[in-house]
């Protein structure tokens, strides 16, 4: 698995997964954010795309966990959000990139290509 999409909104997971699969990427989604650790244990992705604010779990927490663990610190993390301060927050917590919601498909693909180079 090259890309893991983590979002508590199943429609967003399905949309991003479909876009990236049609562009030739190896992608899997996780609609229960609390289960992302299981996905990391079975297959280490090169990129995690996650929502910043999710019910019951926070993309900021996920980013910090991934970046602070020496076994996963090299995984790129891109946070998504419509929150007005999201870009600043992403920088502060060590995310590799930020995608503003709503997003254009081309922006998503451009950011994924850049992060996976």
Could you outline the blueprint of secondary structure elements for this entry?
Elements: E1 3-6, H1 10-22, E2 27-30, H2 36-42, E3 47-51, E4 53-54, E5 57-58, H3 59-68, E6 76-81, H4 86-93, E7 97-100, H5 105-116
Parallel strand pairs: 1-2, 1-3, 3-6, 6-7
Antiparallel strand pairs: 4-5
H/I helix tally:
5
User: How would you sum up the global shape?
Assistant: globular
Strand content: 15-25%
Read across the widest sheet, the strand sequence of neighbours is 2-1-3-6-7
Order of helices and strands: EHEHEEEHEHEH
Secondary-structure content class: alpha/beta
Kindly provide the radius of gyration, computed on alpha-carbon positions and rounded to a whole number of angstroms. 13 Å
Tell me the span between the first and last alpha carbons: 16 Å
What would the average pLDDT be, to the nearest integer?
A: 92
**Residue share in helix:** 40-55%
The largest sheet is:
5 strands, parallel
Uncertain segments are none
Number of strands: 7
Task: Report what the structure shows.
The protein is an alpha/beta fold and 117 residues long. Helix content is 43%, strand content 23%. It has five helices and seven strands. The protein has helices spanning 10-22, 36-42, 59-68, 86-93, 105-116, and strands at 3-6, 27-30, 47-51, 53-54, 57-58, 76-81, 97-100. The strands form two sheets. A five-stranded parallel sheet has the order 2-1-3-6-7, with helices on both faces. The chain has a two-stranded antiparallel ribbon with strand order 4-5. Strand 4 and strand 5 form a beta hairpin. The model has no long low-confidence stretch (mean pLDDT 92).
